[in-house]
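Re: that chain you flagged

S.,

Sorry for the slow reply, it's been a week of failed gels. I finally had a moment to sit down with the sequence you sent. For the record, here it is as I used it:
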Amino acid sequence: MSEMLESYASGAWYRASAEGEPLLDAVTGEEVARISSRGLDLAAMVDHARTVGGPAIRELTFHERAGLLKQLAKQLSEDKDELYALSARTGATRRDSMVDIDGAFGTLFSYASKGARELPNDTIVLDGPPEPLGRGGTFLGQHVYASRPGVAVQINAFNFPVWGMLEKLAPAFLAGLPSIVKPASQTAYLTEAVVRRIVDSGILPEGSLQLLCGSAGTLLDHLGVQDSVAFTGSAHTAGILRTHPSVVHGGLQLGVEADSLNCSILGPDVTVDDPEFDLFVKGVVTEMTVKAGQKCTAIRRTIVPTAIADQVVEAIAARLAKTTVGNPADDSVRMGALASLAQREEVRKAIEALRSSADIVYGDPDRVEVVGADPERGAFVSPVLLRARPGAVEPHDVEPFGPVSTVLTYDTLDEAIALAARGRGSLVGSLVTHDPGVARAVTLGLAPWHGRLLVLDRDDAGESTGHGSPLPVLVHGGPGRAGGGEELGGIRGVLHHMQRTAVQGSPDMLTAITGRWTVGSRRTITDVHPFRKNLAELSIGDTAESAARTVTLDDIEHFAEFTGDTFYAHTDPEAAARNPLFGGIVAHGYLVVSLAAGLFVEPNPGPVLANFGVDNLRFLTPVKAGDTIRVQLTVKQITPRTSADYGEVRWDAVVTNQDDAPVATYDVLTLVAKR
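Prediction finished late last night. Pasting the structure tokens below so you have them in one place:
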């Protein structure tokens, strides 16, 4: 008997004493491991996450959390041979394993980078600018995102035992939540191997990650309103979870990624001689054979114009005929096995259901030539392409979770869109066309039914990541049948785990709460120019008030000649006088900003290393020749960089005229030395 997989719970590895269920090698049928969660204290796991993991993560700023994710990604990427060997036992080829393993580590890198660049070095995120709630400016509202004191539970599918875990863990960790991971049993041995590496690294705070190998049992009974469950799997199981008392009555948040009858549409503009034809065929075959079609994003419905349907079928079949099926250890193999013999039977049942309204035009679900393995002991199945008969219903209802796709035909673009919509919601759809009009029409028609759309043609094919590849920076999820959930999407995936709250108060109170200076808050004017202070010496609210500068007609004329900006409002007195907004010659907006910089800049070498940007620039009042301007510059936000000897300082800049009317407002962004 093989060894029992262990769970990592409450800071220790736990092995069930029960005999457990055997997990078989998808290629050879040999027993890889056994799995059971009998005797595991699930309540203690939840408590450990809440009282140990959560507080430890939330003590860290977003930048510190991002730094740990980057360390972890580097550590996991160093030696992957053992992981690739285990992945092969799931039936995955080396290309399949790269999608799962390297894709997972790449997601960690992506979230580490976005966390450091797009989130503050703080534990709170602001959502939009303050909202004035009174005429006097003493009562404002500010939306903020704060971390929840809960647990993020993952119930993952068998097809991506590494990526499925880390794509959920990364945004949850950045959001301040500990994770409890429950992998699908069939491939849990690969998940367990990665979790062991994470635990052994000591990079993440204890309690950040726990692993539950085996049945989830009563886990959801211990979860409540501050907790969340991210489920990837069948619509049937999702339906059971949706009716759980903790979800229905306890406020437990449930996110679902379920069945998805994804489609790819070949545009009516494409002929067999166009490069888009080959791109379409290659895309369909790739999605049928990568991971043996066991992808929630695979193309299940191939929608093509009736006029060239025969040629499409012939081209796909010809390409499938070159796909070698067998043991992933053989370099000639292009498609491995399904995850289990049970999964093969499910695929065969789905194909039989599809045959009620479609005919097999390539492949045989009951027979396949296999390289380097026994076709019966291993969970092998042939790629199968079907062609739907007119009025077919089953292709829009039955998802064969394997190397199977059904060709459907259309005569008009509206018919193609209607066929796609019959999937009742999908994770991803793709359109192959070189016609911008077709692209717009189909995108508008498909967008309500899809979480992601790929528009592919000869121009973007060289860089395209393909139909079936979820990316960390783009949302992953879909409406309706696809579950209605949403993951990833860059920082959207982090904020999804946090609570957005509207905070009302005075400017000073909002500044204290948010750590960001709010208009109307107190300013601190000191004898030392803020540009002479290093990052440690600066404080929110430190302010510099400049001397005055009179803008002359010579200034305006020189700027126009020097820059080439001879717009009539700056150079033609008669035309400018007829402009209802100006009523005469006015200074260039960028001249005003340039003069303002000259007023507030401290010219000598010091802690300020560089100006790297201007945000939210608005010109409010025209400046005419003879007007006098001055600048008030206030420290708005201080963001130390954890990986450098400097940090970012955001300054609130207000340029006013001789009547104290605001002329321009904007944020100045600088890099300032820590010491």
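What I noticed first: Residues 39 and 521 are 57 Å apart (CA to CA).

Talk soon,
D.
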